[in-house]
Amino acid sequence: MKKIIFPLILLFLLSAGQAFAAQAPMERLKDGIQGVINILEGPQYKGVEAKQNEMTEKIRETIKNFFNFTELSKRSIGRPWLQFTPEERSRFVGLFTSLLEQTYLEKIRDYSGEQVVYDKETIIKGKYAQVDTRLVATDKDIPVFYRMKLENDEWDVYDVKIEGVSLVNNYRTQFAGILDTSTDKKFAETKAELFKRMEEKIKSLENKKTDTKKSK
Asked: What global pTM score does this model have?
């Protein structure tokens, strides 16, 4: 009897573990992306100019649900992130999230029914994962890899690699060209410059969007 008790307990524990485990990375990503597509294809929004702001706001909230903007910000800054104060980190995450939204939300609205194919999920060291996808366009397939991190029992996206170009690496190169950590004085000055440039860029993108709407 004792010989079968242990396997039964083990089976129970494994079953319980699966029941409470986080949603798998690929499933989590699928749900998130499908949520965005559902909004884009919603008859209440598609082609209805008066509803575009409402649609954009819904997309923004949906993306925030499966993207980890704090992790994305930290990795985009790199090692200097350790020298940011909590207030500076919070300010940076807010500005960087806004910058990404202003840069990419308009492009998402150009979606015209392309299919997303989910090829492979790879778990790395238990709490990191990569999901390989392809955006099937009319003339070619575009490889898009999502890097995800398990935090608070949920897998969230912290980097997107499109056709070999990583979002995090791209921005880290740009930020590294501004931040100077050689002395405390230089670091403080260049941090202020970084925040200033980000605010100016966000303002510029907002103005460009407003001008585009006026010209229609």
From this structure: 0.84
